[in-house]
Amino acid sequence: MKITNTLKILAVATTMTWLPTKMNIINAQSLKKDSVQQVDTFERLISSKGTNESNLLSKAPNPNIVINGEAKKAGIVVDIETNVLYTYDSDGNPTKAYLVASGAKESPTEKGIRIVTHKEKFPYRSAIGTKRRRNPKDYGPFVIILKKIDPKTGELSVTGEFIHGCRSYHDTFETDPQRYVSQGCIRMDNEAIAEVKEVTAGTIVIIK
Questions:
Q1: Between β-strands 84-88 and 94-99, what pairing exists: parallel, antiparallel or unpaired?
Q2: Model-level pTM?
Q3: Are 102 and 80 in contact (CB under 8 A)?
Q4: pLDDT tens digit string along 157-173?
Q5: Which of 62, 75, 147, 207 satisfies CB 3.0 to 4.6 Å to 203 for a cystine?
């Protein structure tokens, strides 16, 4: 009887030890599945070609920024945590949201404040000695050229990170679920960059 009871206790103890472990595995799998579903839902709501639904735009980041003691409103804010680019009107109201791609793990996009200096058009013949001149198809139909701006002093400096189109929609938006694929630039769908390139020189861009 003692031996039988001991075996029963061991069996119960073994079961009690095993069940939580199995449940943890199931819960972890469920959480991973839920996370993927949330990303998929987000991507369905915000398109690479742009979305202007008010319930989505209501979650747009604050475009207000102070530069050299003067209050400014950004015309573009890029959230690289979600890889979404938001555009704003002159009053700071969000107008559209686009799925974009940003820097890969080994070449991440740098956060900070930028200013639009000018825009260039394919095939970038004026950009002598640059990668976009040598490989124009990699940059799509338009490039929005940016400079860094120090929010404390307003001083400008050169950056090699721009907003531009892409050579391949598949390689930019479908091969990596999180769209971290560039060498630091913000890549957009070619139809979308044709809209966003309407921004004027002097437009403030926040990368956060």
A1: antiparallel
A2: 0.79
A3: yes
A4: 999 999 999 999 999 98
A5: 75
